[in-house]
Predict the structure.
Amino acid sequence: MKVWFIGAGPGDPELMTRKAWRMLSAADVVLHDALMNIEGMQKAAPNAQWLEVGKRSGRPSVEQAFICRTLVTLAKRGLTVVRLKGGDPSIFGRLAEELQACRTENIEVEIIPGVTAACAAAAELQTSLTLRGESRSVVFVTPRLGKHEANTHSEWLAAAMAAQTAVLYMAGAQAKDICHALIEAGKPKQTPICIVENASRVGARLKLTLFQVAQQGLPKLEGPVTLLVGQALSLALVQQTPLTDDFAERMPVPPSQHAVA
Ligand SMILES: C[S@@+](CC[C@H](N)C(=O)[O-])C[C@H]1O[C@@H](n2cnc3c(N)ncnc32)[C@H](O)[C@@H]1O
């Protein structure tokens, strides 16, 4: 009995590792997150059963306890079970609960890492998250609180202030408040902030200052959004790479079809 936890990366199937692709190809059943290029990834295992168990902000979601139970039940039936998670499974992915459910039932697990949104976003921006002599630390942080967590933003703020580069996950909808809080806490107003929607696929890429976002907020963005804050982002280039969602036929997209730049 074994469950494979596989990092699907930010959406482009070509960013999955060869091992991830190989193990996905061997799956009988795939429990997968929402918000990925599922059609592209299904090419690895067209005959497997694909079950979406994604959680979407503000929309009805599958309960975590149900996901844990289903993993265990399917593995005990002797099926090759893949739990396909967006980005890297170990970053804001509820991996711990699922691992624990497997361990409690003596089900072996293996984890295949993936490209996390922070790295995919930095690649889109053609920049580095660290800068020799200037940015020695990077923090991955989220202001999103779990159901039973106290309603305070002191923890994420302290973490974001302590690092020279802060990458904020699940933070797009609160960007304005976040920039206010960072300025209030002492970050210079002119600190660069980049916004990357749908890294590795078509989406918005913006380069602004904390002050600009604190004043104006962001346009409404549909896809997953990552915010990157810090001086290292001064080197970011905001441009649209020709990308399509089709793994097999990678045709350049005319600039007119690109979203906000
Ligand atoms: C529940 S977390 C999962 C993170 C994932 N495990 C990872 O390593 O990227 C979801 C958040 O990741 C970020 N994210 C995931 N995919 C993204 C993408 N393709 N582009 C930009 N941000 C992304 C967004 O901040 C989104 O709200």
Q: What stands out?
A: The radius of gyration is 19 Å. The chain is about 25% helix and 20% strand. The first helix runs from residue 18 to 25. The beta strands are 2-7, 29-32, 49-52, 81-85, 108-112, 138-141, 165-168, 192-197, 205-209, 225-229.
